[in-house]
Amino acid sequence: MSRIAGTLARTQSEGRAALVAYLTAGYPDAESNPGLVRALVDGGADIVELGVPFSDPLADGATIQRANSAALAQGVNVSWCLKAVGELRKGGLEVPLLLMGYYNPIAAYGPEAFVEDAARAGVDGLIVVDLPPEESAGLREACRGQDLDLVYLLAPTSTPERMALVSRWASGFIYCVSVAGVTGARDALPTDLRAFLQAVRRSTSLPLAVGFGISRREHVEAVGRLAEAAVVGSAIIDVIDHSDASEREARVKEYVEVLAGRRGAAVHSHDR
Fold first, then answer.
1. CB-CB contact of 173 with 209 (8 Å)
2. Domain that holds residue 19
3. Using H for helix, E for strand and C for coil, what is the string for the chain?
4. Is 270 within a domain?
5. Does 60 participate in catalysis according to the annotation?
6. Is 64:110 a contact under the CB 8 Å cutoff?
7. Among candidate residues 155, 150, 115, 127, the one with its CA nearest the CA of residue 51
8. Beta-carbon neighbour count of residue 259 at 10 Å?
9. What is the tens place of the pLDDT at every residue in 73-129?
10. pTM for this one?
11. Contact, 24 vs 71, CB < 8 A?
């Protein structure tokens, strides 16, 4: 059982949704990034997604686009991300870590070399947002050879045929995009989320994670009644952006504690 599967099995046995927290690698700067990852975990994140910065992140809204641009401007690249994961592992971080990003940087690095180096660094899985399942065989086989989970995405517009295809090849979990749009904190979950997830359930026994638009404890609780994991990204970047440098780690930890239900909702993200 992979570290991701083991974590999701544990949170399911505890009767709660896993909290998956996203942070753009190297944001807001290379020096503070490791401490912010630890703050996510200390606050209650069960799984961490590190975003590999890319110049054209089409699935991401303004908040994560800006974080990508800032990280790229500081020279953060694939090699930096892999080194960062290795340092986090050496520092004792044990939660599952996924790299989330786009295929172009992986293609430039070399898919097989990338997967080998990712596994060596301590990466548990990959989410490649713009890689169609029909074109993913090479990366999928490389991941299988290194025991890395390759997580695919489904959207409310996905057909039953696409759901069946993704379910056949996915491992770890399936990332269910809550809206037909881009990332970003939103006030409420879509009303058709339940029907979408029920449709996905008909094609898979894998855990489902819901992302895009989740920013509040009530969102996490609502997702927990429908899926095995809730993914929060843009709202965490918002907290970082609205915190003084000396308070970032504490503020991020407090916010994740709210999302995880460890403290009352006195800490809010700045929704956009």
1. yes
2. 3-259
3. CCHHHHHHHHHHHCCCCEEEEEEECCCCCCCCHHHHHHHHHHHCCCEEEEECCCCCCCCCCHHHHHHHHHHHHCCCCHHHHHHHHHHHHHCCCCCCEEEEECHHHHHHHCHHHHHHHHHHHCCCEEEECCCCHHHCHHHHHHHHHCCCEEECEECCCCCHHHHHHHHHHCCCCEEEECCCCCCCCCCCCCCCHHHHHHHHHCCCCCCEEEECCCCCHHHHHHHHCCCCEEEECHHHHHHHHCCCHHHHHHHHHHHHHHHCCCCCCCCCCCCC
4. no
5. yes
6. no
7. 127
8. 28
9. 999 999 999 999 999 999 999 999 999 999 999 999 999 999 999 999 999 999 999
10. 0.92
11. yes
Residue-wise pLDDT for 205-245, tens only, equals 999 999 987 889 998 999 999 999 999 989 999 999 999 99
From 60, 228, 238, 249, active-site residue:
60
Domain count, the chain: 1
Clarify whether 49 is annotated catalytic. yes
Identify whether the C-beta of residue 117 lies closer than 8 Å to the C-beta of residue 85: no
Residues 22 and 231: their CA atoms lie apart, in Å, by: 7
Q: What residue type is assigned to position 55 of the chain? A: S
CATH classification at residue 59: 3.20.20.70
Catalytic residue among 14, 29, 31, 49: 49
268 within a domain of the structure (yes/no): no
